[in-house]
Structure formats: structure tokens, C-alpha cells
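So, could you explain this one?
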Amino acid sequence: MAWKHRLALIAAALSGAACIFGLLHCGASASFLNPVGDGGATDAGSDVHLFGDARNDTGLFGDTGAVDGGGIDGATSATLQLLAVNASPDLDFYMLVDSLEGVRLASAAVGRAGPGSRQIQVLVERGYPGGRTGSRNNDMALEVARAARAAPQLRLCGVETFEGLIKPKDGRPAQAVADFVDEIGALYETCAAENLFERAPPIVTAGGSSFYDIVVDRLAGSGAQVMTRSGCYVSHDTGVYEAEQKRILAATGENEGLINALEVWARVQSCPEPGLAILTAGKRDFGTDSGLPVPLFVSRDGASPQALTGCEIFASNDQHAYMRFPATVLVTVGDQIGLGVSHPCTTFDKWQILFLVNDAYDIVGALKTYF
């Protein structure tokens, strides 16, 4: 299976220096891709953790670990999350805090949850100017860490960040990410020197799907349990992450990289002009936030898919895509076109069920998505 290849490949790349950690958004909209059958997603034999969806009425499925990537968005949210944690004693749950107010809300939630409530395990979140959540510098993050350590309702377990959206003005994101991860390492060392952490070993979690190699390289040897959250490895893509994979291969000297495994198939509904095909898939079927899909394959009359070259999706509507094809390529009404997407997350959320196929495109399983 292609997804098993990706799991084994990234686990081998981490070489025991880190583990993959699924990011769970409990305060907002949780997202997860759960393999149905075929042995689950941990066959690589490495320290790899994939986690489920806390909104599931029957409790979590998969491994028992989660990071609340949504942080705290209010007293009610924090209390509800803690009640869910208390109801799942085997759940190893971590909440992010990036402000003194967040520490106060998390502490108060323990009191509201009633006698016998568990401590909330927290990670101090470090961000960067112009980014999303997270304390904007190490001084601010250290203040939050000290407050969390002083709160008896909380248990400070480490540091969290997300470096994937750093966009420096000089156009050198890899160097900017390396510098930022060095700051995360310095924050960890300061917290450790002050004996703030209450978990051994403390967690440092970072590493989106673009720069996980830099995260592991810069944090190796820190003494922390380094956890990457490279969610897009599940399917990879033919766009933004394919480009980053080429950078990683060049930087590491590896010959084999991640393989795209997510395709959206559509039929040619019309060829109203020479060189133009209208396909039966659009923005309701694939993400467009990081570029339009790429035509990869064509299947005619049920035959095995063949590589398709020279074609381009140049526009899309809700339910249709516009494909330009050269005169040297035969495209006819009824053909099936296999599309590769850029940024798989915004394609996953459009499908409740994805079919798992083998190399011959026989359906051998299904993947349930939760968004």
C-alpha cells in the first residue's frame, strides 16, 4: 500500500530521533484520516502515533494521545474539554497555552470540572510575529511557562510550535525556519534549566509537512522527546509538498521520497472547443487554496489508467474543471481523468469516505475522514 510506504519512509528518515504526533483540534474542528481495515496505521514498527477525533461520541479510536491544537477559546470550551479527558482515563491529552490568560482559564477549568479532576497537561506554545497563535518571543513564552509551572491544576510537559507558514521577505524559508527552530531549542533549554517541566522527558513538538527534516536536525540531542506533526505525509501531493519533498531530498541526499497517493477522478463531460475539456469535478471536490489540480492519468472505456502529459487545469467552478490539452493528446467525452491535488487537507475535508486502491486500481478498502 502506498500509505504504508510513506509511513515506513518517514519513520526511517526520523531514525528514532523523533516520533510523528497527530495534531488534534479539540477546541474547534478536529480532523483525522482513519484507515478502515488493513491493520491500522502503525505497521512501520517505529515510534509513530496517529490520533483520533475527540468529538466521536464513543470516545477516541486509534492510539491514546492528543494535542489540543486549538488551545483555549473560552471557559466553557476548556471545561468541556477537561470533562471529556476525565471520562477517558487512558487518554494522554495535552493542551496548548500561549498567554497568562490561557493559563488562568485552564486552571479554572479544573476547579469547575469537580472533585477528582485530572491535572491538565499543557505545552507552552511559541509563535512568531505575524503568525497565528503562540507567544511571540521567548521572553513571553518563558513567562507563560513559569505561570503554568506554578499552577497546581496544570502540569507543564513541554514546548509546541508550528513553523510551516513562516514566509521571510528574503525568500529563504528554510533558513528562516532553521533560525526559528533554534529559538525553540533555546526556549526548551531555559525551561529545563529552571526545572519548569513536570514530564520526563519533556516534549518539544514542531515539524509540519514541509520542514520536518530541519526540525529533527536542529532539535536532535536536546534531551527532549521530539515529536513531529507532518500530517500531509498520509497522502503527500503533486503540488506544494512535492516541491518541498524535492528540497528535502536534495538536502539529505536521499534518493527515494514520498509518493503521491491522493487522486480525484472525474469524467470528461464535454469537449466544446478544440483543446478544451470540461471535467465533472470542481471546487466541491478538490482544494484550490494552494493551486489547481494536475491531470495525471486518463482511462478510456474502463481500461487501465495511462499517464497523461501536456494537459493543464486552468480554471474551476463549483462542480466543473477546465482542462486544456494539446492536439497531440487524444481526449474524448466519457474519458476518466485522474487529478493530483496540491495541499491534500482541503481535499480530504470534501469527502467523508475515500477509497483505498491497489496498483491495479482495485478497491481494497476505505478511509473515513472526520472534519
User: Anything to note?
Assistant: The chain has two domains: 2-252, 263-340.
